[in-house]
Amino acid sequence: MFVGSDTVNEFKSEDGAIHVIERRCKLDVDAPRLLKKIAGVDYVYFVQKNSLNSRERTLHIEAHNETFSNRVIINEHCCYTVHPENEDWTCFEQSASLDIKSFFGFESTVEKIAMKQYTSNIKKGKEIIEYYLRQLEEEGITFVPRWTPPSITPCSETPLSSCKKQAASMAVVIPDAALKEGLSGDALSSPSAPEPVVGTPDDKLDADYIKRYLGDLTPLQESCLIRLRQWLQETHKGKIPKDEHILRFLRARDFNIDKAREIMCQSLTWRKQHQVDYILETWTPPQVLQDYYAGGWHHHDKDGRPLYVLRLGQMDTKGLVRALGEEALLRYVLSINEEGLRRCEENTKVFGRPISSWTCLVDLEGLNMRHLWRPGVKALLRIIEVVEANYPETLGRLLILRAPRVFPVLWTLVSPFIDDNTRRKFLIYAGNDYQGPGGLLDYIDKEIIPDFLSGECMCEVPEGGLVPKSLYRTAEELENEDLKLWTETIYQSASVFKGAPHEILIQIVDASSVITWDFDVCKGDIVFNIYHSKRSPQPAKKDSLGAHSITSPGGNNVQLIDKVWQLGRDYSMVESPLICKEGESVQGSHVTRWPGFYILQWKFHSMPACAASSLPRVDDVLASLQVSSHKCKVMYYTEVIGSEDFRGSMTSLESSHSGFSQLSAATTSSSQSHSSSMISRWRFC
């Protein structure tokens, strides 16, 4: 708790641009009485130095302890700056260090107290800033004019809307009266302001855009969206998902940027690998699904969300699994979700407000033990798992009607696989309860309630029914069909081991051809090399080590360069080695200069050995712990293009098959290649 302070030093420049004030602050630390008695002190003293540079629009706050400085060293630094690309945003950085040399045998206790105090101050920081902004408004100060030299007329008033942001970015020095209110110098130097945010491209996130397409966002949520989008722009070279899609992943992780980025990158890689973006255009559901899958889209609810009706109780899940297999059902559900995303965009335009999710109405009339057939439940759990991971925050509400007695059994099986946020959107009605108060009419207009629910609207959703056993297929047929469905991709997988790189051979007949590549590093760190040889290597051989012989869908390992070959004599390196970290996605091209054989190599990247006189870096140690074995995985695609057909776009490989998400807004235009090689990379996690 702050007790008082004395000004030690103060400096003001003649033009008023620089103001430095140093205070000695007296604090009453919330520590055990016994500890205070042993230490022989009732109060501790900190020295705080505030340096305001109005010309550069920066505020630096430095603080260090004076009490027990020979036993405990505490240093803290806070910095406020104006973002160079958006002057309405304040960048805030904070760092602190604690070094406990000795403290009467209570080192661990002191460390816990210090961390508790520091965390508490950070949480209070935002409240402190908002308190003084409100106080400024109450005093009639609605803007903070930018500093100008004395000879220049001060700038005109700025609107109140920018005042709040400018007040923070100008970082007005808190008067001594503020300290007398009981706010410690430590607290003032530890505000939990938002982390640095980036400017919005083309000022896209204005108030009208947010209201029209994104909905209500707090300043912190808007900041998270901008920062994550900026990260995607920097790493994805201009092709990024739409704001609505980024926002879904942020909401699914309570706007934790790191967690949202992780699951979104995994989802983008998954979409790319399985070509999910093209499923509506390239995949036609089998006739069995069209006839017996009792589900379909049906108008919209009262909130404007697209409404999907599923008559699960009338559906022969066992027959569908026996006739089609698990993967075909999964693909059909994915196509439903893709259609849902498309309908959300349409409804956003129709209703003039953001519609980012849909409502699902599930009728369980007819549900019985037949639906609890083990392979059917297994398929359902698999579908839930995939949808939860790749379509977060797309389900606005789930209405479960006419739940029979067997429903609790099914719910017990599936509920653990459903996210907590999603479960809170479930409304379950037994019998005819949906017809009473708080029922269906609260969410769906009377005119569109389906006829099979005693409504007035004819519903075109198939009625389902039993799938004829003549359509059943053998387990072998289903297995082959399932494998075919998920191998319909232009990408191949490979495993890379320490001492066993993966290599592919590309024969070039015409010089000046263009070799293009696109690969993701799914596990571990690798080194990517390109070699040229005038003679063909020996036929491809798989790694002979038993542990390395990969034949599963996880990827193959093929080696082409014979161990007796010498670099510079038998083959030459045509590109500098490229180190690629786990989670990165790399695209590039090489314009060939000579005909012959080109070898693309993915090689295991070993951490460099640390010098004997130095300790390993923490980052290196953590990285080595994350890679539990000497194994890496890559997913790659290559193509050879004639120079006359090459368009030179490294971000989309427009001359070949683009594997990038149609959720993206293409913002990168083609540019003609003038170099022999270009490489672009971005992270997918």
Automatic annotation (TrEMBL):
Write out the entry's keywords from A to Z: Cytoplasm, Golgi apparatus, Immunity, Innate immunity, Phosphoprotein, Signal transduction inhibitor
Q: Which residues constitute the signal peptide according to the record?
A: none
Q: Where in the cell is it found?
A: Cytoplasm; Golgi apparatus
Q: Which GO terms describe its biological process?
A: innate immune response; negative regulation of RIG-I signaling pathway
Membrane-crossing residue ranges in chain numbering = none
Pinpoint the GOLD domain residues: 487-640
Matching entries from InterPro entries are given as: CRAL-TRIO_dom (IPR001251), CRAL-TRIO_dom_sf (IPR036865), CRAL/TRIO_N_dom (IPR011074), CRAL/TRIO_N_dom_sf (IPR036273), GOLD_dom (IPR009038), GOLD_dom_sf (IPR036598), PRELI/MSF1_dom (IPR006797), SEC14/CRAL-TRIO_domain (IPR051064)
The superkingdom listed in its UniProt entry is Eukaryota
The record's Gene Ontology cellular component field reads: cytosol; Golgi apparatus
Q: Does the keyword Cytoplasm apply?
A: yes
Q: What does this protein do?
A: May play a role in innate immunity by inhibiting the antiviral RIG-I signaling pathway. In this pathway, functions as a negative regulator of RIGI, the cytoplasmic sensor of viral nucleic acids. Prevents the interaction of RIGI with MAVS/IPS1, an important step in signal propagation. May also regulate the SLC18A3 and SLC5A7 cholinergic transporters.
Residues in PRELI/MSF1 domain copies: 1-141
Q: Which protein is depicted?
A: SEC14-like protein 1
Q: Which GO molecular function, any one, fits this protein according to its record?
A: RIG-I binding
Report if keyword Cytoplasm is assigned: yes
What Pfam families does the annotation carry? CRAL_TRIO, CRAL_TRIO_N, PRELI
